[in-house]
TrEMBL record:
Species annotation: Rhizopus stolonifer (Rhizopus nigricans)
Pfam families xref list: She9_MDM33
Function field: Required for the maintenance of the structure of the mitochondrial inner membrane. Involved in mitochondrial morphology. Causes growth arrest when highly overexpressed.
Family annotation (PANTHER family): SENSITIVE TO HIGH EXPRESSION PROTEIN 9, MITOCHONDRIAL (PTHR31961:SF3)
Name by which UniProt lists this protein: Sensitive to high expression protein 9, mitochondrial
Transmembrane intervals: 108-128
Amino acid sequence: HLFESAREQVQAAKQTYATAIETRSNTQRGINELLQRKHLWTSDDVTKFTELYRLEHQHAQAETAARENYQICEKQMDREYMELARSIMERYHEEQLWSDKIRSVSTYGTWALMVVNLVLFVMVQTVFEPHKRKRLTDRFEELLVAKVNEEEEKFRGVFDSLNEKDRLIMQQQLALMETVNGLTEHPLFDEDLIHVLKRSASENVIPAIEAPISLVEQPIMEQTVTEQTVTEQPTMEQPNVIAKVPSLADW
C-alpha cells in the first residue's frame, strides 16, 4: 500500500516537473524572441522583457523545486520498494520455515497415523473380532435352541393330537367290541382282552395283543329232507380261533 502511494506521488511530481520545464521553456523562448529584435523595442517590449525576465527567474525556481521534489519522491519510492521487497523476502522465508515445520509435522503425523492404524488393526483382530464372533455364535446358538424347542413343541403337539386320535379310536373299538358281545348270545371277544384294552386306553398306550376269541360250541343241526325220513347229523365242534386285535394302522 505504501509503495503504491509513493509511486503515485512520483507520477504527480514528474508531471509537475515536466510542466515547470515547459513553462520555463516558453518564458525563455519569449525572452529570446525579444532579444532578437532588441533594436526595435518599444516601451511595451521593455516592460514585457522585464516581466518575462522576472517570470523566468520564478519559473527557474519552480523548476528546481519540482526537480528536487521529483527526486525526493523517487528516493521515497525506492525506499518503499526496498521495504516491500524486504517484507516479501521475510514473508517468503517465514513461509518456507512454516512449510518445513508443516512438512515435518505432516511426516510425524503420518507415522503416528500409521502406528495408530496398526494398533487398531491388531486390536480389532485380537480383541474385537473374537468378541464379535463369540457374540454371533452365542446368538446363533440361542436362535438354534429356540428354533429346536419350537419344532419340538410343534412335534409334541402333533404327537399329542395323534395319541388323542388313537385313544378315541381305541375307545370306539372297545365300544364296538362291547356292543358286539352284548348283541350276541355267546361273546365273541374275551373279557380279559377287553379289560387289557381298556387299561391300555386309560394309560394312553396302544398294544398289539393277540388274544383268543372264545367261540362257544354250538350244535349245528343239518337237516336233510328226504322223501320220508329226516336224518339227524351229529354236532360239530368249532376249534378255538386265534384272532389278532386290529391296531391303529389296520384301522
